[in-house]
Amino acid sequence: MHNRRDFIKKTGLATAFFGLGLGSEAFALSPKASLYKISLAEWSVNKLLFSKKMDHLDFPMLAKKHGIHAVEYVNQFFMDKAKDMSYLREMKSRAEGEGVTSVLIMCDREGQLGAADAAERMETVENHKKWVEAAKFLGCHAIRVNGYSSVEYSQDRKAFSESQKLVADGLRQLCEFADTMDIGVTIENHGGFSSNGKWLSGVMKAADHPRAGTLPDFGNFQISPNDGNPISYDSYKGVKELMPYAQGVSVKTTVWDGKGNQSPLDYEKMMRIVLKADYHSWCGIEYGEAGREWESIVEVREQLEATEAALQGSFSV
């Protein structure tokens, strides 16, 4: 039935074109749909923002200036403005005025979603609600939270499962509120247990909520620095495990193996993993080389565009 519908859709379109006398040339000139969309994470320019060399309100305008038409905000750069409607209106106006899409808000410093104490978990959930509301107002589709727990990282199986249980509980509670706002809640692999793909995919299964999702970050699979002997998880394996739950993707230019070693990102290999999961939405650049942030951002954007062009024959939207 699915194939039949596709056939009817395609032949109906062909009839329309030929009926207008456009013929096969119209199909040759039709642009191919994008395999994925490119956005920019505000953390890419964090040094410029912290040093006051750049204003948070200018982020959409500067992103567009460098060829990117969607942005991912970081709450740290407007931490005290989550309920300031005048400020949020200005953010919204600036983005819409530039024709730039507001994708999500990355949320930090709001407590442990997987705190051992139930009251503390609830407080963390409450702390995040204002960001869900801000995301809704700005036109974002999600917020990004951290899957941190009061259970310290170890290779002990009990700690592994207990931390999963706690984070899943906090996530589910937050998702129940976010659902009323039509906002997703994503967890990024961001150190500790969360940088273990098996652990984080297990949290998604345990939370069992349609608003719960992941934000696979290509470069954030270092579990622990471990005093100069990093404990890491293979980036390609981890992204593959997290993509079934992905509501976004963060693009960094280096990846980890499972032995504590880093190497340059193989763009084509990684984007094949992303696309094989039938994901065609936002891929947020989260990279900015110190002193040449915007130049390096453009380089990554161009590499993503070149990779998409190379993969066009292998995937379709």
UniProtKB/TrEMBL annotation:
Gene3D superfamilies: Divalent-metal-dependent TIM barrel enzymes (3.20.20.150). InterPro entries: IolE/XylAMocC-like (IPR050312), TAT_signal (IPR006311), TAT_signal_bac_arc (IPR019546), Xyl_isomerase-like_sf (IPR036237), Xyl_isomerase-like_TIM-brl (IPR013022). The keyword Isomerase applies. Keywords: Isomerase. GO terms for molecular function: isomerase activity. It holds the Pfam family AP_endonuc_2. Residues 62-295 form the Xylose isomerase-like TIM barrel domain. PROSITE patterns: TAT (PS51318). The keyword Isomerase applies. SUPFAM superfamilies: Xylose isomerase-like. This is Sugar phosphate isomerase/epimerase. It comes from Cyclobacterium plantarum.
